[in-house]
UniProtKB/TrEMBL annotation:
Gene3D superfamilies linked: endopeptidase domain like (from Nostoc punctiforme)
Annotated coiled-coil segments of the chain: none
Protein name in UniProt: Distant relative of cell wall-associated hydrolase
Highest taxon of source: Bacteria
UniProt keyword Signal, yes or no: yes
Keyword check for Hydrolase: yes
Any GO molecular function: hydrolase activity
InterPro entries, per the entry: Papain-like_cys_pep_sf, Peptidase_C92
Residues in the signal sequence: 1-24
Length: 259
């Protein structure tokens, strides 16, 4: 059995964090290798910085901010992202935030976020975009799904038991769905939090991203649906990495001599 050194190096972290894993074929020889869920934002290829003009309607924007709320979500989900939004074209983004569902220009969105990465569903066609755009106005001003977020908070932590390394994908899926039904199943379905809003837009367009209950899906789950990663919940389509619209600068090293 062939297991890449990178997977071996990541295994101790996965044991502590409860990162999902899976076995996949390596090459024509068919030798299995262990894939470990990528906890970082770095895509499987070199980071690509893009401008907003590169985006296409239907692109999914995952982001993080410097606010305490964003930090809390990232800590709970063990992820570098805390928010999900939908690019609807013409330089505008639709999203579910605390004030409710809103639409705003891309510059305003980028100004508020510290890091923004774009992902693309390769199957989006013009008719899908029309359905997404028809869905957004119907929800503008609707209240945020605070109940769903509150119910998801303990689930985000306890779900790690279902994602222990070497847990078979089917068993992981059953465990997550079962635990979610008990902890999140009583939440509202007529209001949306950020990732739930994106999932609903895709469902209305006829391109569901997953068959899992949207109330179980966090921005971190959307991140792990990207190419080269291991999704915790089974995804209907691998998302392509478009690139970084904004990337928080790495902290500068402290070069001062120790006292």
């Amino acid at each position: 059995m062939l297991i890449r050194r990178r997977a071996l190096a990541a295994a101790p972290l996965a044991l502590l964090a409860g990162c999902a894993t899976r076995f996949a074929t390596e090459d024509a020889a068919g030798l299995p290798r262990l894939q470990v869920q990528n906890p970082g934002l770095q895509p499987p290829r070199d980071a690509l910085t893009i401008g907003a003009e590169t985006l296409a309607p239907g692109d999914i924007l995952l982001s993080s901010a410097n606010a305490m709320t964003s930090l809390g979500i990232r800590l709970a989900t063990l992820s570098p992202v805390s928010h999900a939004a939908l690019y609807i074209g013409n330089g505008h983004v639709a999203e579910a935030v605390g004030e409710g569902i809103r639409q705003r220009p891309m510059p305003a969105f980028l100004e508020e976020e510290a890091t923004v990465v774009a992902f693309r569903h390769p199957g989006v066609q013009a008719d899908h975009v029309e359905k997404m755009r028809a869905f957004v106005p119907k929800t503008l001003g609707e209240k945020y799904n605070y109940v769903g977020v509150l119910l998801q908070a303990p689930f985000s932590i306890e779900r790690r038991l279902c994602e222990l390394p070497l847990t078979p994908s089917l068993l992981r899926e059953v465990c997550l769905q079962g635990m979610g039904a008990m902890q999140v199943g009583l939440g509202r379905t007529d209001r949306f939090f950020c990732s739930q809003f994106v999932l609903e837009a895709y469902r209305r367009a006829g391109l569901p991203l997953t068959q899992a209950d949207p109330r179980l899906v966090s921005p971190a789950d959307l991140l792990h649906m990207r190419e080269g990663d291991v999704p915790s919940l089974r995804s209907e389509q691998v998302l392509q990495v478009v690139g970084y619209l904004k990337l928080a600068p790495a902290p500068e090293p402290d070069l001062r001599a120790p006292a």
